[in-house]
Amino acid sequence: MVDRSAGRKAAPARKLKKEQAPSAPTTPPIVTPPELGDPNVPSRLEMGISELQGLHSLLLSGDLDPRVLGDFRDALNRVRTAAWAAQQYVARKEIDQDSTSVLSFLAGERIRVAYQLCQALADDLKRTDIDFQRGSLVQLQEVTKALSEQLDDIIDRLG
């Protein structure tokens, strides 16, 4: 069981009551992942490494909100897992080995992360100091209903 006593930060789609509504849309841009072999991947990874090294200094400052730090650690863990899986996937492809187990692992990891996010969101929904946008909640409700139906089908098939 995950300890949620520290709380979580609000997602970008919501705002604290004290804040003014943003003038720009709060929907994050859709980012398509680069293809394997994309020449920009190494440079983007190098930029990411540089950014993480800069964040290292901020982490050492010690002036951090525990919720933000927890979210940052969760994000880093997801990146580490994805990097490991990408490395395994490429290594298996190079030797013509089946990569199904890596893909299954990644799906399991997404399930674990989704569970944690759902727990954090459930905690957020109980709070009275967060204003949620109706449209975002409706979208979330629709996608969770569809996901719930898919889960029911798969769980039934698994017995």
What does this molecule look like?
The chain has 159 residues and is mainly alpha-helical. The protein has a domain at 54-132. The model is unreliable at 1-32 (pLDDT under 50). The longest helix is centred in the middle third of the chain and has 29 residues, at 66-94. Helix 2 packs antiparallel against helix 3 (100-126). The relative contact order is 0.12. Strands 1-2 form a two-stranded antiparallel ribbon. The chain is built from four helices and two strands, in the order βαααβα.
Q: Tell me the strand order in the biggest sheet.
A: 1-2
Class inferred from helices and paired strands: mainly alpha
Number of strands: 2
User: Largest sheet, described in full?
Assistant: 2 strands, antiparallel
Summary keywords:
two-stranded antiparallel sheet; flat
